[in-house]
Design a protein that fits this description.
The chain is α/β, with parallel strands linked by helices. Helix content is about 25%, strand content about 15%.
Length: about 280
């Protein structure tokens, strides 16, 4: 057990933990799990909450908005009323999202598009080209490269978020987690939907092989999907552009987020990252 190994390796082990970063079956990442195991070994546990927010331009308001949207915090979804530190908008289509973010790239900001794992993920073709698996209407893009070697102009998986060429592929949570970029586009797939004013998860709409295993029950699946979208929705440091595949979910988000065309957005004050080309 990894927790046991870490406790045994240090005189005073310190765990820096975000319970909503657990996105894969088999991962251990709850305060209670660590507390319970440490206590069973006879160790005292001190829990120190870290309330500082450094992601999303330091916007605690946006983080709480995401948590409530995903029902990871009590209160249910609420309208986005704006924050001087962070910008949020809803795209009417993936085409509009892509065009918005290309505009930000041209201004010198970094930008990427990610999505829930709701489309198959093909291996490259025999000629080395990537398959455009992520399809929404007439818009299509390939997933990021699976392995540690570039495919044409597409960077290796580990460099998708930081290397030139990454904007032309859609990132999954396993690639995007741990990285930030100035502008984040998030396609909410049909595995997350809104019904009667609350988000629900739709297991049959997800294509991740990890969730096809019988050992992953519906409760764990539901929590993982909510955590996955929490990760995806908090990659941006300046702003987030959202689009939902499910029409009811898109309509619901339109009630929460005031649509503002890009030319009406406040001018971003600066990038926290080295500007990237597409």
């Amino acid at each position: 057990m990894q927790v046991d190994e870490l406790i045994a390796a240090a005189r005073v082990p310190v765990f820096l933990l975000d319970e909503h970063q657990v996105v894969k079956p088999g991962e251990i990442g709850t305060v209670e799990a660590i507390r319970s195991h440490a206590s069973s070994l006879g160790f005292r546990v001190h829990h120190v909450p870290l309330d500082g927010q450094f992601r999303c331009g330091g916007s605690r308001k946006y983080e709480k908005w995401v948590l409530r949207l995903l029902c990871l915090e009590s209160g249910g979804p609420e309208p986005w009323t704006g924050d001087d530190h962070f910008q949020v908008t809803l795209a009417e289509s993936p085409w509009e999202m892509e065009n918005m973010l290309r505009g930000k790239l041209e201004e010198g900001y970094s930008a990427r598009i990610s999505a829930g794992y709701c489309w198959q993920w093909s291996d490259p073709r025999s000629d080395g080209s990537l398959v455009s698996d992520v399809r929404v209407g007439d818009w299509a893009k390939p997933w990021n490269v699976k392995g540690d070697r570039a495919v044409g102009t597409a960077p290796p998986s580990a460099l998708w978020a930081t290397m030139n060429g990454g904007f032309d592929q859609v990132g999954c949570v396993y690639t995007a987690q741990g990285f930030e970029y100035d502008w984040s586009g998030v396609i909410i797939g049909p595995d997350l939907a809104v019904r009667q004013g609350r988000t629900i998860t739709v297991r049959e709409a997800n294509k991740d092989p990890e969730f096809k295993k019988r050992s992953v029950n519906d409760v764990h699946y539901d929590q993982h999907i909510r955590n996955i979208y929490k990760v995806l929705l908090t990659r941006g440091m300046v702003g987030t552009v959202i689009y939902a595949v499910d029409p009811q979910t898109q309509d619901f988000l339109a009630e929460l987020i005031e649509r503002r065309p890009p030319d009406s957005w406040p001018r971003s004050t600066g990038s926290r990252h080295t500007p990237l080309s597409p």
